[in-house]
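Reopening this one. Same input as before:
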Amino acid sequence: MSIRMRKYQMLSDFEKVSLFYVENYIKSNVYQTQPCFAFSHTHGNFDCKKAHRFGIWEENWQIVATACFEIGLGSYIPLIKKGYEFLLTEMLNYAERELSEYVDGRNFLEILSIDKQSYNDFYRKNGYNIKHSNPVMIYPYDIGFVECVLPEGFQIISLEDENDVEKIDRCLWTSFSQKPYIFNGNDERLFKQSSPNFRKDLSTVVKAPNGEYVCYAGMWIDEKNGFAYLEPLGTIPQYRKMGFAKAALMAAMKKTMFYGAKYCYCGVGAFYNAIGCKQIGITNTWHKV
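Same output, byte for byte:
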């Protein structure tokens, strides 16, 4: 049977594409992991109304390649089963047509790709330039975990112990936004927790003596490939520099060991370098107008 291309149907294809990500896992590109794919689907900014534009290539009814965006139009994450690299040109043409963003009379597209010579040559040949490169960072569990002692009255809990979505919302909003906090109801946070891959037991909170959630570490896992994925990690500004982020992250990672994880994908920056994260690769963001 020849290869056929079709568009993504989110309600019926999510599990199929998730399995494709698991079976074709590439360690050096965090964007090409099932936890990243799953997390994006319940992100508050995910453009679900445009997800039908994702492309799926199949042979004998089995997926061999996918073209997805991360959060919305303007980005392209290619994933190709080994041996099907000949689809690169067709996939790029599709992404430029279906996944690019149209602004002021021009189309923009960014490609999130592994740093590999053959891919780099291909994208340059097609008129793309590297906008920026990011290291892919993991915390390897074989180095052990830092023991963290919290100030008196603070405690580490999971969302199985207590799941106050308004406190989670306040914690993460305050951690990442400069705007005054306004609670807009429980729906957005409950929607994030509705993912079939969301784990309350792995989601970890530092709770203050007054009951406030001062730090939140979201944790996802790919049990088959033996790794965890941190997203998000946030601490309320007035509680930073007190070791809470490190404590929450260490506690969350320890829990994933029981499900076979041997390392965790983490963020980039001085904090992650200081706790022992190691670089295992580079992802390039290619840009073209």
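So the earlier flakiness isn't reproducible anymore. For the record, The CA atoms of residues 23 and 225 lie 9 Å apart.
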